[in-house]
Amino acid sequence: MLTRLKAKSEGKLAKQICKVVLDHFEKQYSKELGDAWNTVRKILTSPSCWQYAVLLNRFNYPFELEKDLHLKGYHTLFQGSLPNYPKSMKCYLSRTPGRIPSERHQIGNLKKYYLLNAASLLPVLALELRDGEKVLDLCAAPGGKSVALLQCACPGYLHCNEYDSLRLKWLRQTLESFIPQPLINVIKVSELDGRKMGDAQPEMFDKVLVDAPCSNDRSWLFSSDSQKASCRISQRRNLPLLQIELLRSAIKALRPGGILVYSTCTLSKAENQDVISEILNSHSNIMPMDIKGIARTCSHNFTFSPTGQECGLLVIPDKGKAWGPMYVAKLKKSWSTGKW
């Protein structure tokens, strides 16, 4: 059932691929991605090829670390190539695999950096947060995108919501680790079913991020419990309905003229393009926003797979650019009434 992989580094146990999940992905993604799936599969099943970006924390800036990263050949992501890129956000990456050690959580001490998949910054950048805006992160745990949003601008109000109680603890700890007390005061953390947020806070927010629960291809491939993996796969068909319901709630919570960004970390068309198509077809007050420019300016750092949508991008892992999977779609709420 489980195929052993080579050890990622000395002293660490080898990760194991769950064959049930790999076989399932093989059937689906070989059809959806064609020949590209061969490379994607190789990267996803080889943790030794994975790359980690280093997002510097502007609230406790690590000047010495930044010098070291330069000396080690790291370069900044996006800067100089992406229009409207916030100068306050600094993210470094290396062209070679590997990661620097994570920092430990220490009460009262802000961490200096956050390790992440560089593609996960694309939804944050697509949101184009401005100082003073009210923003909702509807499915916020573990908190990396909330932290990244706060590197971009100082919102007037940031609402971080997470329905899962265990993940909520993780979210709170992440925020405490990276955000200074004065700014914590403009952040609200809640444990509401995201499908009810729109009714609870109608037309409250200028920007909404829906980083939806999804098939999380990277972690599913390394499920240690094959029985649990089989259960996940059988329940996978229910995810698009949940994602659509979360988006409908987000639309209600968004003010007219506001921006909504939807993201997942799966390659699945059913959870990506099909979900967005359903929203566009059922809401006359939701308009797609063209984000193809991001793909054009970021192609030296990311590999994009065609989505057939101007408003949607799909980052797929590639050799030397092992970022993703990450799907991002950008929508705008117009002033007309929508059909539900």
From TrEMBL:
<feature type="binding site">
    <location>
        <begin position="139"/>
        <end position="145"/>
    </location>
    <ligand>
        <name>S-adenosyl-L-methionine</name>
    </ligand>
</feature>
<keyword id="KW-0694">RNA-binding</keyword>
<dbReference type="Pfam" id="PF01189">
    <property type="entry name" value="Methyltr_RsmB-F"/>
</dbReference>
<dbReference type="GO" id="GO:0005762">
    <property type="term" value="C:mitochondrial large ribosomal subunit"/>
</dbReference>
<dbReference type="GO" id="GO:0002127">
    <property type="term" value="P:tRNA wobble base cytosine methylation"/>
</dbReference>
<comment type="similarity">
    <text>Belongs to the class I-like SAM-binding methyltransferase superfamily. RsmB/NOP family.</text>
</comment>
<dbReference type="GO" id="GO:0003723">
    <property type="term" value="F:RNA binding"/>
</dbReference>
<feature type="domain" description="SAM-dependent MTase RsmB/NOP-type">
    <location>
        <begin position="44"/>
        <end position="334"/>
    </location>
</feature>
<keyword id="KW-0808">Transferase</keyword>
<dbReference type="GO" id="GO:0016428">
    <property type="term" value="F:tRNA (cytidine-5-)-methyltransferase activity"/>
</dbReference>
<dbReference type="InterPro" id="IPR023267">
    <property type="entry name" value="RCMT"/>
</dbReference>
<dbReference type="InterPro" id="IPR029063">
    <property type="entry name" value="SAM-dependent_MTases_sf"/>
</dbReference>
<dbReference type="GO" id="GO:0031167">
    <property type="term" value="P:rRNA methylation"/>
</dbReference>
<keyword id="KW-0949">S-adenosyl-L-methionine</keyword>
<dbReference type="GO" id="GO:0070129">
    <property type="term" value="P:regulation of mitochondrial translation"/>
</dbReference>
<feature type="binding site">
    <location>
        <position position="211"/>
    </location>
    <ligand>
        <name>S-adenosyl-L-methionine</name>
    </ligand>
</feature>
<keyword id="KW-0489">Methyltransferase</keyword>
<dbReference type="InterPro" id="IPR001678">
    <property type="entry name" value="MeTrfase_RsmB-F_NOP2_dom"/>
</dbReference>
<dbReference type="InterPro" id="IPR049560">
    <property type="entry name" value="MeTrfase_RsmB-F_NOP2_cat"/>
</dbReference>
<protein>
    <submittedName>
        <fullName>NOP2/Sun RNA methyltransferase 3</fullName>
    </submittedName>
</protein>
<feature type="binding site">
    <location>
        <position position="162"/>
    </location>
    <ligand>
        <name>S-adenosyl-L-methionine</name>
    </ligand>
</feature>
<feature type="active site" description="Nucleophile">
    <location>
        <position position="265"/>
    </location>
</feature>
<feature type="binding site">
    <location>
        <position position="193"/>
    </location>
    <ligand>
        <name>S-adenosyl-L-methionine</name>
    </ligand>
</feature>
<keyword id="KW-0496">Mitochondrion</keyword>
